[in-house]
Specification:
Elements: E1 7-12, E2 24-25, E3 28-34, E4 40-46, H1 50-55, E5 61-68, E6 73-81, E7 84-90, E8 93-101, E9 116-122, H2 123-133, E10 137-140, E11 148-153, H3 158-169, E12 172-175, E13 186-190, E14 195-201, E15 216-227, E16 234-238, E17 261-265, E18 268-274, H4 276-282, E19 286-290, H5 301-322, E20 326-334, E21 345-355, E22 361-381, E23 384-392, H6 401-413, E24 422-437, E25 440-445, E26 447-452, E27 457-470, E28 473-480, E29 487-495, E30 504-507, E31 510-511, E32 530-534, H7 536-540, E33 549-555, E34 579-594
Parallel strand pairs: 10-13, 14-15, 14-21, 16-19
Antiparallel strand pairs: 1-2, 1-5, 3-4, 3-22, 4-8, 5-6, 7-8, 9-11, 12-13, 15-20, 16-18, 17-18, 20-23, 21-22, 22-23, 24-25, 24-34, 26-33, 27-32, 27-34, 28-29, 30-31, 30-33
Length: 600
């Protein structure tokens, strides 16, 4: 056991109410602090201590505290949850062993539930609202004040929601670890990078005075890994949705670190971004990057713009972090007597000279610079404190298969809880009469066809229109009797000989005929019209917005043509009636994306 009980645990129940009398002395402890996620704790205590037997149960919460003799400061080295207990025997006697996740694991057990929506909300507000659901508090760096979050969470853990939020804006989360205080259960949100003041170096490079300097630590072992497999510098970012329904940068409007650019594959426009400095150094590395958690929280144009801006910001953060090779230093250090947090910056000075086959010294790896702390393991025992660090020149954890699998499993579990962007296709066909009588404005009739797009529609990718003209026809014919003034009605399909002339197309009361080669069947021509046109842009960009009842109208001009049914009647039987009329058959196909959520 540590002399004078320099290491101990305070024990709490699941609601963080203190249990037992006084602290529980410990023999040793190991705490791992992880970047952007939960770490772990493990510790040992004498089996002969009654408090160990009575208090240290599964699911009990513990705070591990250490009184550092070098600084005479008591600090919390970690907090966690007991999930596993054991017993072992050694020369020093029986010991109880305990392990479990650190206290951030609590955020995995609280859930956002369904339909928790944030629309253009400040990062600090989102973090605080999520944290308070689990009884925590959040502290957000002021540097993130300008970042806005648009997100919807359905069935995600609070930890997953916080991780998703910070990943999109290039920030991080960590538990606030400090000297004991009344402010426990605080999660910090920021880009961090605070200078820890710690210098790490080869021990042979220093003077004896350095051994008493708490700002200096010595390298015990060092592993260096240079990794470029995960690099990319040219990306097409894709948000929620599949295929044509996927969210892109099309509607993004934010000021951006990397320009939004377009390229075309076939007839499809693709939106991409690139890191020119990285391309110049390493060559082009293309990738389609998906951010499936980024989706419009509603189907309005404003919500689509917010989602596209969130996707744009996530793309910038991805280009920043993945545009250069990542070097990770895994090192054990001696003389670690200060609190090191994930996200802090440490200074590394190392000269790794080797000797070649000729016996001459080769300067293989010389390092001097500032590096982000990605992972900290702090071991406290009778022999003192030792630290194992993972530090890097890039503020992201190296890709690992285990982390990828765990994230994929959680995404699969949540796949059906969130409204998804889906493709839809609808088509309809109708035919209506159109007419314009000569000098008779009260007999005007337009052939109108509605396109109804309501608030379930997110966007459209195609509106295709085919229209065909036909002569007017009738099913019954009124005819004068040959023997008297009475009228005989006979059944017949009587088809006229005149096709509608000077056909014009109006989309939402705007004449668009000339844009598609109209008017059609211009007088004195008398022929059928069969046209197929794409009117997508005029529906998407219509005055009043996409989501409304759009109107497609066909109109004709005044003409002087005999409109009597051929073969029935004549000049001697009835005065001729002059006009321009016929039938318009219209086929409309609409394709787009939809979400089954209500929006304003």
């Amino acid at each position: 056991m540590l002399s004078e009980t320099r290491l101990w645990a305070d024990v709490y129940d699941a609601s963080w109410n203190r249990v037992g009398d006084g602290p529980v002395p410990l023999t040793s402890a190991s705490i791992t602090r992880a970047f952007d996620g939960a770490g772990s704790i493990s510790f040992e205590a004498p089996a002969s201590d009654e408090r160990v037997i009575a208090l240290l149960k599964n699911e009990r919460r513990v705070k591990l505290l250490y009184h550092d003799p070098h600084t005479d400061v008591v600090r919390t080295i970690g907090s966690g949850i007991i999930r596993k207990r054991g017993r072992k025997y050694s020369a020093s006697g029986f010991q109880k062993t305990f392990s479990g996740p650190d206290v951030l694991d609590e955020l995995k057990r609280w859930n956002t539930l369904l339909g928790r929506i944030f629309t253009n909300t400040a990062v600090s507000d989102v973090a605080s609202q999520l944290a308070v659901l689990a009884g925590w508090q959040a502290e957000t760096e002021s540097l993130l004040d300008g970042n806005l979050i648009t997100a919807r969470f359905d069935g995600a853990s609070i930890l997953k929601a916080l991780q998703t939020m910070t990943e999109q804006i290039g920030a991080h989360i960590r538990e606030k670890v400090d000297v004991p205080s009344a402010r426990d259960h605080v999660i910090e949100v920021g880009r961090f990078g605070t200078d820890s003041g710690l210098w790490i170096m080869n021990p042979e490079q220093v003077t004896p005075r350095a051994y008493t300097n708490t700002d200096i630590a010595f390298i015990d072992s060092l592993t260096i890994i240079h990794e470029s497999e995960a690099m990319f510098n040219w990306i097409i970012p894709i948000g929620s949705g599949e295929g044509e329904s996927a969210l892109t940068l099309e509607h993004a409007t934010r000021l951006t670190g990397y320009d939004r650019l377009t390229t075309t594959v076939g007839t499809k426009t693709l939106y991409y971004k690139k890191n020119d400095a990285s391309i110049a150094e390493y060559g082009i590395i293309q990738k389609v990057v998906t951010f499936k958690n980024i989706a419009p929280v509603g189907n309005s144009d404003t919500n689509i713009e917010y989602a596209a801006n969130a996707l744009d910001e996530a793309a910038d953060a991805a280009l920043d972090r993945n545009g250069t090779p990542q070097t990770v230093y895994k090192l054990s250090i001696q003389k670690g007597s200060r609190l090191i947090r994930c996200g802090d910056v440490v200074h590394l000075r190392f000269r790794g000279a080797v000797r070649g086959l000729d016996g001459l010294e080769l300067d293989d790896e010389t390092v001097e610079g500032d590096f982000y702390v990605l992972k900290v393991t702090e071991n406290v025992s009778a022999s003192g404190v030792s630290l194992t660090l993972e530090i890097s020149d890039v503020d992201k954890l190296p890709d690992s298969e285990a982390a990828y699998v765990l994230s994929a499993i959680e995404d699969i579990q949540l796949a059906n809880t969130k409204p998804a962007l889906i493709n839809f296709r609808q088509s309809f066909t109708d035919e209506k009469p159109v007419q314009q009588w000569d000098g008779q404005p009260t007999y005007i009739r337009y052939a109108d066809f509605p396109i109804k797009l309501d608030n379930t529609v997110t966007d459209i990718s195609l509106v295709r229109l085919r229209f065909i003209s036909k002569p007017l026809y009738s099913y019954t014919i009124g005819q004068y009797s040959a023997t008297g003034p009475s009228v005989l009605n006979q059944f017949n399909v009587a088809i006229g000989g005149n096709y509608p002339q000077d056909i014009s197309l109006y989309i939402d009361n705007v004449d668009r005929s000339a844009l598609f080669g109209g008017p059609w069947n211009v007088a004195p021509a008398n022929a059928a019209v069969d046209q197929t046109i794409d009117i997508t842009d005029y529906i998407r960009d219509a005055a009043g917005g996409l989501r409304q009842d759009h109107t497609i109208e066909f109109r004709v001009s005044e003409q002087t043509r005999d409109v009597r049914v051929p073969g029935y009647g004549g000049g001697s039987a009835i005065n001729a009636i002059y006009g321009n009329q016929g039938i318009i058959r219209c086929e409309i196909i609409v394709q787009g994306t939809s979400q089954s959520i209500a929006v304003s």
